[in-house]
Design brief:
heterodimer, A: about 140 residues, Cytidine Deaminase, domain 2, two-stranded parallel ribbon, 9 strands, B: Ubiquitin-like (UB roll), two-stranded antiparallel sheet, about 30% strand, globular, Molybdopterin synthase sulfur carrier subunit (chain B), Mopterin_synth/thiamin_S_b (chain B)
């Protein structure tokens, strides 16, 4: 189960909409071991692509060091799908490498109109498990 | 003196949970070979068919080694090597 504030969900959706039709990506850091996402860190999609995303390696180094210094970890790793549903693709699964992270997908595909779809998964050793998202009102 | 290698969460099963380990060598390739001698299995997670795996980022101090010289990048005592899983994916 992922417990996350409405404010952070809104920020992910806003980022996904801003970068649409390219995929948007980022992390939400939280205190190590807390399983609580707190600090929103939008990342650049180095691929600038509607079908692929990759964190810029230098930006990632900077952000991961910052988390290390603050005793944080990437609680949420999010990205958007801009024309498909919010479900991990084969590429998403093959790259997933933070066993403690919640992989959040935001879909901004056209059929949804004003609504965005936000779903969360654990991806461990190639196995995807969808989990409940509990949104805490601000 | 040695070279400090920072290990990401997903690879700490090879280092008994250690966040950082020391290793030696004059190139990144030698360094990874030295790591393998004390942490068997680690090399295969970093290197495939003589090149760095695309699923990992390896940094020498503040630089991505892909922009330096890959596995042939020279390393020296006092350097820090950081390994991070690449974060990527997409709808296809």
């Amino acid at each position: 189960m992922l417990t996350i504030s409405q404010e952070l969900v809104d920020k992910m959706i806003a980022h996904a909409r801003a970068d649409h039709p390219d995929e948007a990506c980022g992390v939400i850091a939280g205190p190590e071991g807390s399983d609580t996402p707190v600090r929103f860190v939008p990342m650049e999609n180095a691929e600038r692509s509607p079908t692929f995303y990759r964190f810029d390696s230098m930006e990632q180094l900077r952000v991961w060091r910052e988390m290390d210094d603050r005793d944080e970890e990437p609680v949420v790793i999010y990205h958007s799908h801009t024309s498909t549903e919010a479900y991990p693709s084969r590429t998403d699964i093959s790259y997933a490498s933070e066993p403690n992270a919640h992989y959040v997908l935001v879909s901004t595909r056209e059929e949804l109109g004003e609504k965005a779809e936000v779903r969360s998964y654990r991806i461990v050793e190639g196995v995807v498990t969808e989990e409940e998202v509990v949104i805490v009102p601000v | 003196m040695a070279i400090e290698v920072r290990i990401p969460t997903i690879l700490r099963t090879y280092t008994d949970g250690a966040k950082a380990v020391d290793a030696q060598g004059s190139t990144l390739e030698e360094l990874i070979g030295d790591l393998e001698s004390r942490h068997p299995g680690l090399q295969a997670r970093l290197v495939d068919q003589g090149a760095l795996r695309r699923f990992v980022n390896v940094y020498l101090n503040d630089e991505d080694v892909r922009f330096l010289g890959g596995l042939e990048t020279p390393v020296a005592d006092g350097d820090t090597v950081t390994v991070l899983p690449a974060v990527a994916g997409g709808s296809r």
